Amino acid sequence: xxxxxxxxxxxxxxxxxxxxxxxxxxxxxxxxxxxxxxxxxxxxxxxxxxxxxxxxxxxxxxxxxxxxxxxxxxxxxxxxxxxxxxxxxxxxxxxxxxxxxxxxxxxxxxxxxxxxxxxxxxxxxxxxxxxxxxxxxxxxxxxxxxxxxxxxxxxxxxxxxxxxxxxxxxxxxxxxxxxxxxxxxxxxxxxxxxxxxxxxxxxxxxxxxxxxxxxxxxxxxxxxxxxxxxxxxxxxxxxxxxxxxxxxxxxxxxxxxxxxxxxxxxxxxxxxxxxxxxxxxxxxxxxxxxxxxxxxxxxxxxxxxxxxxxxxxxxxxxxxxxxxxxxxxxxxxxxxxxxxxxxxxxxxxxxxxxxxxxxxxxxxxxxxxxxxxxxxxxxxxxxxxxxxxxxxxxxxxxxxxxxxxxxxxxxxxxxxxxxxxxxxxxxxxxxxxxxx
Length: 436
Description:
By secondary structure, the chain is α/β, with parallel strands linked by helices. The chain is 35% helix and 23% strand. The longest helix has 28 residues, at 407-434.
């Protein structure tokens, strides 16, 4: 197939919520653009698949809460239905303990998190310190530290030994919800929102269009894909830092930028949806929430949409996901079933469908839910990436000032980057028109 060269004002790389949000801002401003996506769908780390029952389920990002205003507004504007996550009843911990003891340990583990967040990220006393090393210095009981580890590795999908303390503090401070981030799920799936946004872009969105090279020259940028080349005034790389680091830049990216992109590591998570005939746990006074203290990163909660759709979601995060992905399908299913039976009783074996998505080494995202900095000395990495190498710019949920690692953060990051590019493009167009 003969390669051709197309021209536009802006090329966006990546049609996750960052790229989609940026594209819609450019469309609103009347800026010509093309959005390139390597996958055969939009949404990035938000996706949906059919389970064994033929139901469409969220196999990627799913939850939200009322403290995420941009995402809430989008869902409302698109007519989506929010389902409130069931949380009434006893929270189960494994190994089992009394409800009162479990509550005390949970409160104490949250107190560790609060204590951590009183530390300034740039405090010289924590320079080079990992979360694991800091936790070891704390005087809390071992069972409380274990609960904290399980919570953090489950949320950030990364081993505490790999996480710089300053980065976790800085990251956590930007996650400002006062209600649980598990407050709602979308009946039509979160991915249906990505599909809606993608449809608004028409043929400006190109699927199956992996970028091979980004060439930066005096006349702008030239992006090469298998289908041909596209020339533009500027480009927005709207993919996670780990994936951005794998792109081929010609000439090579500035050394500081290359290093800043290289200090990240993708999280590891396997997301499991377990369908049951009924939400039997509710009848027993259980919420469906389970945290395994002996397996940090393993967590379950109720995601039933109604009485006819009884379901639990199980997250396998961090080092545990990397170990369990080696089990193979049959052993993984058996291990999950056994763990659910231990936690919720014999009825937990009555599964009518078990579907899972392994995100640990995803080709086009690197992993999930997000990337984290794993070099304790890279305190300026985000600033350097956000500055970019104009006319090449970068944005992703990880770099968002609000809710990094969440869909909300991706929307915010995409809009901020788009507005910056709009101003630059409009200025360049005006300069060109004036002949100066």
